[in-house]
């Protein structure tokens, strides 16, 4: 009876080129997502903040903003007309 049972491993076909591309592409995508999540969770080093501040212009005088002009009062008021029924 033991001679009748076949315990050999099943035949698994070799993966095709597209299956390999898909498999490694999914691995690459998962690693990229982990890197992105870690970049959000981990704090940024302080040396990076100091570098970004050095690019800002350093003027001793504050930048003056132009003042908004006041609306002119000399305009003629519009005539009010009664509604015709």
Automatic annotation (TrEMBL):
Gene Ontology cellular component list: membrane
UniProt KW keywords: Membrane, Transmembrane, Transmembrane helix
Topology term for the membrane: Single-pass membrane protein
UniProt keyword annotation of Transmembrane present: yes
Record-given protein name: MANBL protein
Origin species: Setophaga kirtlandii
Bias (Basic residues): 75-85
Region (Disordered): 48-85
Segments of skewed composition (Basic and acidic residues): 48-64
Localisation per UniProt entry: Membrane
Transmembrane residue ranges: 24-44
InterPro entries hit by this protein: UPF0239
Record-stated family: Belongs to the UPF0239 family.
Presence of the UniProt keyword Transferase in the record: no
């Amino acid at each position: 009876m033991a001679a009748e049972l076949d315990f050999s491993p099943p035949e698994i076909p070799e993966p095709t080129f597209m299956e390999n591309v898909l498999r490694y592409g999914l691995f690459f995508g998962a690693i990229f997502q982990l890197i992105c999540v870690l970049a959000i969770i981990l704090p940024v080093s302080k040396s990076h903040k100091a570098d970004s501040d050095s690019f800002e212009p350093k003027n001793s005088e504050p930048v003056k903003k132009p003042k908004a002009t006041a609306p002119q009062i000399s305009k003629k008021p519009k005539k009010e007309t009664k509604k015709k029924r």
